[in-house]
Predict the structure.
Amino acid sequence: MRLLILYGRYPSPNSLELAEVAERRGHQVLAGSVIDVSSQVSNGGSRFWLRNVEVTDYEVCLLRSFGPGSCEQLTRRISLIEHMELSGIRVMNPCYPFRRARDKYATQYILAGAPIAETYTTEDLGTAYRWAGRLRTCIYKPILGHMGRGSMKFDDPDLAYNALKSLTRIGEPLILQEYLQKPGRDVRVFVVGEEVVGAAYKYGPPGSWKTNVAQGGRMVAEEVPGEILELGVKAVKALGLDYAGVDVAESERGPVILEVNGAPGWQALKRATGVDIAGRIIEYVEGLTP
């Protein structure tokens, strides 16, 4: 199989591991930045290149990121990935499910049939201020945030107002979410296909409401209730993803989906559980091609 792996500006340890595992299993692998992909559209058909290497005939593309850039650059890259799909390259995760999972707003309305946190979106500061007062304790989330970076917790609507005012000045949309009381931990459920291949608890550092490993949290392999595992599979299926990391909170009203990551990292989960996540992803890819 000819496998293309596209990351953002730079490869992560997860992208490098995917390439290593695929090559070890005998596949032809080409990895590079999505920024470096070019395309041609003509009446004679479509062609694609990663740098100077033509990849038109590659069977599968593992998409890890759209990369950083302007609105116009990201628009081109999203169209590019969709163009590759329409030209017969199997993209994993598929372009638009991947985009929705990257977007905190889209994730919420797609998952509205499952247990989610109450969420408000606006670009109007006064409206956001009223919602912050109604929620009392709330979370601001960047629409394209990841690893918990940029998320802020407010216990006072006036403090929220001052922070959100600065965000509106630089053109950021405002997403406010209810704060869920939970026991200082969340659950990460890693799904490939419709199967849970790994799960662990994420514990936040002392005094922090965030459990992200990138924010000082730690993963611990403990038995996870079947109800939470099933919810992870349901979330991935609803978003139309091939694989994802799903974060679930154990709230006072039961399990609640916090986030679905369509380009999840797994190094901490691998260390905690011993599961070869990259190997399971490549095995799934192998099942997609004749």
In short: The longest strand covers residues 195-203. Residues 128 and 236 are 30 Å apart (CA to CA). The two ends are 9 Å apart (CA to CA). The mean pLDDT is 94.
